[in-house]
Amino acid sequence: MQISIIGTGYVGLVTAACLAEMGHTVTCLDIDEKKINNLHEGIIPIYEPGLSELVKRNIKANRLFFTTSYTYAVENSDVCFIAVPTPSSEDGSCDLSYVLKAAKSIAECMTKPMIIVNKSTAPVGTCDKIEEKIQAHIKSGLTFDVVSNPEFLKEGSAIHDCMKPDRIVIGVNSEKAAAVMKKIYAPFTLNHDRILIMDRKSSEMTKYAANAMLATRISFMNEISRICEKVGADVNEVRKGIGSDTRIGYSFLYPGIGYGGSCFPKDTDALRFLAKENECTPLLLDAVHAVNVQQKKVLTEKIVKYFDTKGGLKGKTIAIWGLSFKPDTDDMREAPSVTIIKDLSEKGAILRLYDPIAMDNAKKLLENHQNLIWCTSEAEAAKGSDAIALLTEWKQFRLINFKPIQDTMKGSAFFDGRNQYKPEEMKNFDYIGIGVPDHILENDIH
Ligand SMILES: NC(=O)c1ccc[n+]([C@@H]2O[C@H](COP(=O)([O-])OP(=O)(O)OC[C@H]3O[C@@H](n4cnc5c(N)ncnc54)[C@H](O)[C@@H]3O)[C@@H](O)[C@H]2O)c1
């Protein structure tokens, strides 16, 4: 099938590459000329495991094309996916301007009947708005369908998630559109049917409800971890204890430094706004948000408290291991590390920063901040520091030989924002995690 994808970011590019891999002919469009020029030269704008190979293979096979021209993209497709940003507005509502601008541009170029599929995460009613926008700008007499098809991929495992989706949610208001969407996704569901066809509003709501549920689990565990700290329980044990109940399950039960990324914060905010707009008070979602705001401060508070008895944080050097909002991505959007780094630097700490992949994106976000030293490895970051704070659980931090690292450090504290280590593995450190009993060295020497 001839498909175009409007917006060549994390979702658009991955979706395009996977659809092309399954045999569709796909044209990716973006308004960012530099991005498209780079893609023509095989330069991939984001870090996503496996994506580069997939893109290059499909360019070579003449199934994947890139353009900045709406006329070219629309002419060369029967189905047009929208995968542009839907950021938060200042009031927390979802900013639909990118989506509606894309819809208008598509409409202005349409010369034949088309299906327009919204993949951007957007509030209930967005398909209706896209429909109105297109209707207002197409040549009279042309017919079209608007479909909701929210995306559930996770950065870091996006190719796998797209190739082997748990489910494909499709919201339609015509049987014809449903049949075309089934055809597009048929190669992805060969071993069992994973397509859920529903009405457009339910489909739009499904995406928000899914993200809100995941954010809720995280905030719930973060709250449990705080209670654990107060009463002397170990949240790592509690997590296993509750996760073994099949009604609960093990996923998304990890306490940490708060959820971040380009989806959970903005999507829970947008759902809270949508609820309020419709005279429904989102009591639980407001609490999920409040817990998260607090949780982003928890590690900083622990660091400040620790150095209180050691002359204060001012002038102390902290190595920061990991910057991206989660491992296997270069995405820094809403990363909790940014809040922590800003807070620590404002309190006078000197920060030695390292991330395996997200350094360039982090530098752009933090360029105006004082006392930041950018390092090329976790060992270099630790050199001369009073403490290490682990903020992202990259695999390469899992099996560290700590002895030579600790020999180069000034102090001996380890703040584990992801509970990556067991306290007994960190016997030579003052080890402080999230929701676990602190392990402080006797006489505080190492
Ligand atoms: N990133 C994720 O993990 C993820 C997962 C599921 C859903 N989503 C949703 O998918 C949507 C896209 O997210 P993303 O992370 O891929 O964003 P992104 O910022 O990585 O990419 C969006 C792209 O759209 C382009 N763009 C903006 N306006 C345009 C226009 N008018 N015409 C053409 N291109 C335009 C931008 O230049 C950019 O390259 C959002 O609604 C997001 O919430 C994201």
Query: Ranges with pLDDT <50 over ≥5 residues?
Result: none
In terms of structural class, how would the helical and strand content be classed? alpha/beta
Number of domains: 2
Q: Mind telling me the C-alpha Rg?
A: 24 Å
Shape: elongated
Question: What is the CATH fold-level name of the largest domain?
Answer: Rossmann fold
Which ions, cofactors or small ligands are bound in this entry? nicotinamide-adenine-dinucleotide
Largest sheet geometry: 6 strands, parallel
CATH homologous superfamily descriptor of the largest domain: NAD(P)-binding Rossmann-like Domain
Task: Give the strand tally.
Answer: 14
Mean pLDDT: 96
Q: What is the count of helical runs?
A: 16
CATH arch. level architecture of the largest domain: 3-Layer(aba) Sandwich
Query: Helix proportion of residues, in percent?
Result: 40-55%
Q: List the helices and strands in order.
A: EHEHHEHEHEHEHEHEHHHHEHEHEHEHEE
Beta-strand portion reads 5-15%
CATH class of the largest domain: Alpha Beta
For the largest sheet, list the strands in their spatial order: 3-2-1-4-5-6
Distance between the terminal alpha carbons, to the nearest Å?
A: 64 Å
